[in-house]
Amino acid sequence: MLEVLIIDDNESNILILEDLIQSYMKNNDILEYNLTAFLDSPKALDHVQENKVDIIFLDIMMPDINGFEFLDIVRQDNIEHQPIFVMVTALQGKKFKEKKQELGANAFIIKPVNDIQIKAILDKYVAQIK
Questions:
Q1: What would be the CATH architecture of the domain defined by 2-129?
Q2: 20 to 30 A from 14, CA-CA: which of 8, 101, 112, 122?
């Protein structure tokens, strides 16, 4: 089963991503998936460390543990199954893309997120997971 996680401190952003991901899954006849969302990055980190997660849509600007810190912790952890990280942010620029690559993120999308971005990301990575 495909495990997808959304981590964002803004509930509206989570609802948008949930809707876009669910639409993608429905349109592509992917029935066996689980979609989980967290507003709280420390709780999300506990979840990732205790469960197999395939794809994480991760906001960068969050309180407590920001997206870059979260990514760094998971990448340095000895988690057997490393998830695919999709960094989601309103921030733009070369500095952020370089930081993403330095820490080992797989993709980077700019808010506002739309169905074309989600389709491109999921088309690329869902095939790798299956």
A1: 3-Layer(aba) Sandwich (3.40)
A2: 101
Q: Delimit the domains of the chain by residue range.
A: 2-129
Distance between CA atoms of residues 77 and 72, nearest Å: 8
DSSP characters for the chain?
-EEEEEE-S-HHHHHHHHHHHHHHHHHTT--SEEEEEES-HHHHHHHHHHS--SEEEEESS-SSS-HHHHHHHHHHS--SSPPEEEEEES--SHHHHHHHHHHT-SEEEESSP-HHHHHHHHHHHHHHH-
79-92 pLDDT tens trace: 788 999 999 988 76
In this prediction, residue 77 carries a pLDDT of 87
For 24-69, the pLDDT digits (tens) are 999 999 999 999 999 999 999 999 999 999 999 999 999 999 998 9
**Per-residue confidence at 13, pLDDT binned at 50, 70, 90?**
very high
